[in-house]
Amino acid sequence: MTQNVKKKGPSYIYLGVKRLVDIIISIVALILMTPIFIIMFIICHVGQNKGPLFYKQQRVGKNGHKFYIYKFRSMIVGAEKKLKSDKKLYRLYVDNSYKLPADVDPRITKLGRFLRKSSIDELPQFINIFKGDMSLIGPRPIIEEELREYGDRVNKFLSVTPGAMGYWQASGRSNIEYPERCDYELYYVDHASLIFDIKILFKNIIAIFKGDGAF
């Protein structure tokens, strides 16, 4: 990607409108998704899927603030421990831009594969959006180890609130790996606006329905 001259930071009006929209959308979404939460709660009490409803993982947000991101659990209980206890598997995870291909990831359940492919596992992030840890649109929040990928640009990356949907996702998600992913995320930081957010929203919706780059 070609680098563009950095624009002036986003206005307070834009940030205020964006936060108001986040609150309204997250409240409506959580109310409408109540049946899905109930169904998932029941499913998580039987068979291989038995365990906690949510998968929580610490991520790094705006200005380095750490928080727990919520997802419907698509992995076995103890997945994080299983990953880090297998040095070969963890090396593959790091080398593959901090993810594992679904076909070689021993942590993902059969239900989990469907949840990930359909992006249903991401729905609980409306809780994070409501709380203000995340926004609907913004760079994806990452784990602390990934910060090294941004080098001397890490403060720039952490200058905005991370989002459930971002320019990187809209452009290909897992098909775009580091270091190219950094360029997409930082491009958003430089060009954030309501118009750009709306474009990203619709591009993400299309990508979700197509299943592009979903692991």
Automatic annotation (TrEMBL):
The keyword Lyase does not apply. Keywords: Cell membrane, Membrane, Transferase, Transmembrane, Transmembrane helix. It is found in: Cell membrane. The chain crosses the membrane at residues 20-43. InterPro entries: Bact_transf. It comes from the Bacteria. One of its GO terms (molecular function) is phosphotransferase activity, for other substituted phosphate groups. Residues 18-209 form the Bacterial sugar transferase domain. It holds the Pfam family Bac_transf. The keyword Aminoacyl-tRNA synthetase does not apply. GO terms for cellular component: plasma membrane. Belongs to the bacterial sugar transferase family. This is Undecaprenyl-phosphate galactose phosphotransferase. It comes from Liquorilactobacillus uvarum DSM 19971. The lineage of its organism: Bacteria, Bacillati, Bacillota, Bacilli, Lactobacillales.
